[in-house]
Amino acid sequence: MKQNKVRPEDLRLYAITDRRWLGNKKLSDDVEAVLKGGATFIQLREKHLETDAFKREAEVIQKICAAYHVPFIINDNVEIAKAIGADGVHVGQSDMAAGDVRRRLGDDKIIGVSASTVEEALEAERHGADYLGVGAVFPTGSKDDADAVDAATLKAICEAVDIPVVAIGGITADNMKELSGSGICGISVISALFAQPDPYQAAKTLRAEAEQYFA
């Protein structure tokens, strides 16, 4: 792995934020709860916040992640990641190409890329991705545009690349066992954490299961 920027264990329980279930809570409080419960990686995903609010939220959560020594990256928004000095960025297939992100952020930052085929995975690796997010491995309501990835494709992607792979899409404590043996380093979840009444306990349960199946 290049410069060991992302270790397999960093991806064991990869949490992607979603504010739609917050109610009267603060997103930063839920992020800290899942970190206390065992989340190993945090991605801030904001599709609707205006730039200044997004940046303020990012700065608050960045400090919390630093206190827990957990990588903190921004979804899609390279400029905010660069402005606050986030650990990196995650981009999809329709976002800025990994090579362009690398040129903007520099060699020391983490770049994650979404992939749903072996070809996309290999291209991302060639262009400097540090890890891949592969999915959707199960039906999901969190991302309406997510392509389905079957078990054979997930395993083929893991075997084709030398960078770590995390699975995403509809993963829960009840179904993650089906991903065992695929070659992934861990799971990436949204609603399995942030839609739960107790995000701390949800994270604790998911982390224990992930360590059992993917360590």
From TrEMBL:
Cofactor binding, per record: Binds 1 Mg(2+) ion per subunit.
CDD domains: TMP_TenI
Domain (Thiamine phosphate synthase/TenI) ranges: 13-193
Binding site for Mg(2+): D76, D95
Transmembrane intervals: none
Catalytic activity from the UniProt record: 4-methyl-5-(2-phosphooxyethyl)-thiazole + 4-amino-2-methyl-5-(diphosphooxymethyl)pyrimidine + H(+) = thiamine phosphate + diphosphate; 2-(2-carboxy-4-methylthiazol-5-yl)ethyl phosphate + 4-amino-2-methyl-5-(diphosphooxymethyl)pyrimidine + 2 H(+) = thiamine phosphate + CO2 + diphosphate; 2-[(2R,5Z)-2-carboxy-4-methylthiazol-5(2H)-ylidene]ethyl phosphate + 4-amino-2-methyl-5-(diphosphooxymethyl)pyrimidine + 2 H(+) = thiamine phosphate + CO2 + diphosphate
Pathway: Cofactor biosynthesis; thiamine diphosphate biosynthesis; thiamine phosphate from 4-amino-2-methyl-5-diphosphomethylpyrimidine and 4-methyl-5-(2-phosphoethyl)-thiazole: step 1/1
Amino-acid positions noted as binding 2-[(2R,5Z)-2-carboxy-4-methylthiazol-5(2H)-ylidene]ethyl phosphate in the UniProt annotation, renumbered to this chain: T140, G141, S142, G170, I190, S191
GO cellular component, one term: cytoplasm
Cofactor(s) it depends on: Mg(2+)
Pfam families hit by this protein: TMP-TENI
The EC number(s) this enzyme carries: 2.5.1.3
Recorded superkingdom: Bacteria
Gene Ontology BP annotations: thiamine biosynthetic process; thiamine diphosphate biosynthetic process
InterPro entries for the chain: Aldolase_TIM, ThiamineP_synth_sf, ThiamineP_synth_TenI, TMP_synthase
Binding site for 4-amino-2-methyl-5-(diphosphooxymethyl)pyrimidine: Q43, L44, R45, E46, K47, N75, S114, K143
An annotated Gene Ontology molecular function: magnesium ion binding
Keywords recorded for this protein, A-Z: Magnesium, Metal-binding, Thiamine biosynthesis, Transferase
Protein family per UniProt: Belongs to the thiamine-phosphate synthase family.
Function: Condenses 4-methyl-5-(beta-hydroxyethyl)thiazole monophosphate (THZ-P) and 2-methyl-4-amino-5-hydroxymethyl pyrimidine pyrophosphate (HMP-PP) to form thiamine monophosphate (TMP).
Name of this protein: Thiamine-phosphate synthase
Organism: Candidatus Pseudoramibacter fermentans
Gene that this polypeptide is encoded by: thiE
